C-alpha cells in the first residue's frame, strides 16, 4: 500500500492522529487519520459532524443509529466501519481507508486519455458492487429480523476501486442522514439526482431497487465513459 501521508502532524482525535483534512461536505469534515495504539496501527478515514447538526439531537440519534446498523455489515466489497461515537463533543465515524480511486476519478482519467474502460473491468466492478448491495438487502439483526438497509446514494463517488482490483462500496448508513442534513440546514433536498429513480426524486419510500437502478446508471457510464444525464440537470442547486 502506498503511504498516503506526506507529513504527519500531532492533532489528536481520541485514538486517531489526524494527518490531513480531505474535504468539507454538507454534513461535516473528512480526514485522513492514523489509528495507533498498543494493538492496531492503520490508516483510517474519519467523518465528523458539523457543529450545527451535532446540536440537533434527533438528527444525531438517527445519524448514529443508522451508522451503527451499517457497521454490522461484513462483506469484502463494503467499506468497513470501525467505530461510531463521539470524542470531546464531536460525533464521528471511523472507517476503512481505501488505497485507490473512486469511479468518478477513474472515469475522469479515461475521458482525458480518450480511452474506454475495458468491458470486463466495468462488468466486474458492477457485479462486485451488486453483491455488496445484495448482502446489505439480506442483512439481519441478532434476532433474525431484516435490517432493510438501503444505500440511497450509489454513484461513481461512492464506489471505489482498490489498487489491487477490489471494488468497495462506501458510505452505507450515511446517505439518509446526509439527505436529512441538507433538509435541516437548507430546507430542501440536495443530492446526485442523476442516479436517483423517480420514486426517490418524488420523496417516496425506496427499497433495494433504488440502489440497483443507480448501479445500472453507473454501469452505463462505465461502459460509455459518458454521463447518462448531462451536467446541469443532475443536481438541485
TrEMBL record:
One Pfam family cited in the UniProt record for this chain: Pkinase
Q: Does the keyword Metal-binding apply?
A: no
- List, alphabetically, the InterPro entries matched: Kinase-like_dom_sf, Prot_kinase_dom, Tyr_kinase_AS
Q: Which GO terms describe its molecular function?
A: ATP binding; protein serine/threonine kinase activity
Coiled coil regions, renumbered to chain: none
Keyword annotations = ATP-binding, Kinase, Nucleotide-binding, Transferase
PROSITE patterns the record matches: PROTEIN_KINASE_DOM (PS50011), PROTEIN_KINASE_TYR (PS00109)
Q: Which residues form the Protein kinase domain?
A: 16-237
* Protein name stated in the entry: Protein kinase domain-containing protein
Source organism of the structure: marine metagenome
